[in-house]
């Protein structure tokens, strides 16, 4: 862990609050909504980049913001790049996250490259499907003007973060003639840089613990909810170290089952908090 013993004598710049307030006041005085948004976002982006840079370059500034949860958390998982693109057959909205401020450059490089590759692959695959949908629509007599563009959305959500670990999910959603979403879960031990598995967190008997907790939760469903559950499913057989999960803010494991995996499509993605 980083030695923070020398960070105690910190003085936050006196003008920081006034710079932020001035930017907001200036933006709000504009009559055009686009200008308001542009000024606020540009100012926020500039301040954020400056903050990240100072966190990496200045131990004193890092310690100063360490007591502010929002800034500290964002500097662990933050939006590295955001962009929008659209044409006649697709529109794309993407937020690419990265992790930083872990004290382990190799960990950050590995995870960030993996996230970038996953997102790039998802987008390229969906762009190819959008072209196939469009070509098939036109080939079967459809008017190109009537084609509804395929939507591609990529975003992420931080589930929990503290000095010991970070847990977040990156998701890609495609909306076209049918809609589906892919989820990619990251649970990282910030002390040793390793990926956290269910076995790491729950112990060697993790399969029994997860199975018992999930089955107990299902037993408490009402009859209508139980009706959508597949009868021939063995929860125990579905639990392994590759099972999707995240760690919630209470520090509990939340196991995730994909749509159609253990219940009919109407149930959607199912999550179970593991009480162990």
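Q: What amino acid sequence fits the structure above?
A:
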């Amino acid at each position: 862990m980083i030695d923070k013993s020398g960070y105690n004598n910190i003085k936050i710049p006196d003008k920081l609050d006034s710079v932020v307030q001035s930017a907001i006041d200036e933006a709000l005085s504009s009559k055009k909504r686009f200008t308001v948004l542009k000024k606020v976002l540009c100012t926020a982006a500039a301040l954020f980049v400056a903050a990240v840079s100072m966190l990496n370059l200045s131990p004193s500034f890092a310690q100063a913001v360490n007591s502010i949860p929002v800034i500290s958390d964002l500097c662990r998982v933050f939006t590295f790049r955001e962009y929008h693109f659209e044409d006649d057959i697709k529109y794309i909205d993407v937020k690419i996250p990265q992790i930083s401020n872990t004290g382990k450059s190799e960990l950050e490089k590995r995870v960030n490259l993996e996230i970038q590759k996953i997102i790039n692959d998802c987008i390229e695959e969906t762009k190819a499907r959008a072209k196939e949908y469009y070509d098939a629509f036109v080939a079967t007599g459809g008017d190109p003007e009537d084609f509804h563009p395929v939507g591609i959305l990529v975003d992420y959500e931080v589930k929990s973060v503290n000095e010991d670990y970070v847990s977040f999910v990156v998701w890609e959603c495609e909306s076209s003639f049918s809609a589906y979403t892919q989820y990619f879960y990251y649970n990282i031990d910030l002390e040793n840089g390793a990926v956290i598995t269910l076995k790491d967190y729950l112990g060697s008997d993790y399969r029994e613990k997860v199975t018992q907790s999930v089955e107990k939760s299902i037993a408490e469903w009402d009859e209508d909810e139980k009706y959508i559950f597949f009868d021939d499913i063995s929860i125990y057989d579905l639990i392994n170290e590759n099972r999707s999960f995240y760690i919630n803010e209470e520090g509990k494991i939340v196991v995730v089952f994909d749509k159609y995996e253990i219940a009919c499509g109407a149930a959607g993605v199912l999550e179970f908090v593991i009480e162990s």
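Q: And what stands out in the fold?
A: The two ends are 29 Å apart (CA to CA).
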